[in-house]
Design a protein that fits this description.
single chain, 417 residues, Aspartate Aminotransferase, domain 2, Aspartate Aminotransferase, domain 1, 2 domains, seven-stranded mixed β-sheet, four-stranded antiparallel β-sheet, 16 helices, 15 strands, binds D-serine
Length: 417
């Protein structure tokens, strides 16, 4: 692969230089965006391979192009590994992203205007769960449920009430900023009582689900979608799983319904990632993500930060900054921490009174740091730095001292590979 890098450097020094700078950024900063991770070199090599040259519309053995013998084998391996990893009846590994995996389920099950129940984006849901500016909110009649004001946990009674009232065809569960376990069984029960099907979008928690550290939606939900790059630590892409009876409709919703040629190089990288996730050390990693996150939650709480829902069961915490400093917005905190070498994202908290550009919260996750090998003692140190930076009032000296310390920790724990 080194030869390829030399080739890029000579033929396009501008892009080469930018990739080098991004690599340096990733190496020298503490990545705490809950949806990001560091894919293995094996995943990166597969994603950067000559498979990008191949057209393979259709499915293995039933393509619309010649020369698919090797990509057929690649995709078959990816499908079989995905099925083994999650224990699902059927998998289609062609969706380019999590949103497209969701789109495949919608296209296979719904007609425009049909009613769907899903978690409000402002309470931790996702754009593709019916946000009005997203295709989902445009095409379908989404009704939102949320979290309770007092506990900030999913209001299952509200789901039951709304399901009874609106009789949705589909209930979507899964979130992008929810720190607690999602009770898929309870939601499936509500759906059954009201004649709805369930889509569990496990994009964030897939790496925890496949290792047994989060409730498994596969037995009780008709459809399960995921991205492959978050806790699962594969390439940037999606996958969709379903019960056997929906296999055909999901396959045709993906192609020709919403995509043309699959990204064979990315499918190869997904296959590599699924194999990595089947290994015993992946379970150790998944467990450590949660341990690290719980330490982060305890440490931040002890420093006066209020955590939405009071803590975490998974890979992220959602910090409400208002108690710590009423003037400090999520946007300000994101910038201050970035300057100190800690990368997080501003995030709305439930019932936030600030805009999505400002926010009253930040979302902080532990998957990428866990991949780097960081353990409890390092997380305690990072919580100290977060406190130091956010109480600094923007003091440049304090921030630059922390920046030196985070860079040193990054040097001690290089990104694997
Ligand atoms: N944008 C992703 C996240 O950060 O959670 C979800 O797609």
């Amino acid at each position: 692969m080194l030869g390829y890098w030399k080739y890029l450097e000579n033929s396009d020094p501008e892009i080469y230089g930018l990739i080098q700078r991004e690599e340096h950024r990733q190496q020298s900063m503490l990545e705490m965006i809950a949806s990001e991770n560091h894919a293995s070199p094996a995943v990166l090599v597969a994603a950067g391979s000559c498979l990008t040259n191949k057209y393979a519309e259709g499915l293995p053995g039933r393509r619309y192009y010649g020369g698919c013998e090797h990509v057929d084998d690649v995709e078959t391996l990816a499908i079989n590994r995905c099925k083994k990893l999650f224990g699902c009846d059927h998998a289609n590994v062609q969706p380019h992203s999590g949103t497209q995996a969701n789109m495949a389920v919608y296209f296979s099950q719904l007609k425009p205007g049909d009613t769907v129940l899903a978690m409000d984006l402002a309470h931790g849901g996702h754009l593709s769960h019916g946000f009005r500016l997203n295709f989902s909110g445009n095409l379908y009649n989404f009704v939102s449920y949320g979290v309770k004001r007092d506990t900030e946990t999913i209001d299952y009674d509200q789901i039951a009430t709304l399901a009874k009232e609106h009789k949705p065809k589909l209930i979507v569960c899964g979130a992008s900023a929810y720190p607690r376990t999602i009770d898929f069984e309870k939601i499936a029960e509500i759906a059954k009582e009201n004649g709805a099907k369930v889509l569990a979008d496990i994009a964030h928690i897939a790496g925890l689900v496949c290792t047994g550290f989060h409730m498994d939606p596969i037995p009780c939900c008709e459809f399960v979608t995921s991205t492959t790059h978050k806790t699962l630590r594969g390439p940037r892409a999606g996958t969709v799983m379903c019960k056997a009876e929906y296999a055909k409709s999901i396959n045709s919703a993906v192609f020709p319904g919403m995509q043309g040629g699959p990204l064979c190089h990315v499918i190869a990288a997904k296959a590599v990632a699924f194999a990595e996730a089947l290994r015993p050390d992946f379970k150790t990693y998944a467990k450590q993500i949660i341990t690290n996150c719980q330490v982060l939650a305890d440490e931040l709480t002890s420093k006066g930060f209020r955590l939405c829902s009071g803590g975490t069961d998974n890979h992220l915490v959602l910090v409400d900054l208002r108690q710590y400093n009423a003037e400090l917005t999520g946007a300000m905190a994101e910038t201050l921490l970035h300057d100190a070498g800690i990368v997080v994202n501003k995030n709305l908290i439930p019932y936030d009174t600030r805009s999505a550009q400002e926010t009253s919260g930040v979302r902080i996750g532990t998957p990428a740091l866990t991949t780097r090998g960081l353990k409890e003692e390092h997380i305690k140190q990072i919580a100290n730095w977060i406190d130091k930076v956010l109480s600094s009032g923007g003091d440049e000296k304090i921030i630059s001292n922390v920046r030196n310390e985070t860079a040193e920790l990054c040097r001690q724990f290089p990104i694997p590979g």
